[in-house]
Amino acid sequence: GYAPLYTADPLDSSRLQFALSALHAVVESHRPFPALIVDRGWNMLSANSNALMLFRRFLPSLGTQVSDKPINAMRMCIEPGELRSAIRNWPQFAVTLLSQLKNELAGGTTRPCRNSLP
Predict the structure, then answer these.
(1) Closest residue by Cα to residue 10 from 35, 44, 39
(2) What sign does the CA torsion over 67, 73, 78, 84 have?
């Protein structure tokens, strides 16, 4: 077998602390705009306070939900509900998200989504 492409260190690993600190600094520097840190599966690992306020506006259960299951940012935007209905350019937004997913599944590089919520 081949060696793994990436290590599987847990997020609380001392080896990742510098990288995580840098990611958190970048996310916070995006304020007043919402920003998230997601894993490879689009599960939200962290977010700045503006992102959490925005999501709570459309997903009231987000603030009170106690769950072991992480919040999936992609699913939150695609599934029918208050957040999806608030996206004015839903067809274009969905095409961009699905294109992003298709590219990632094919092993391609990712590029940031340029769509925004109202």
Answers:
(1) 39
(2) positive
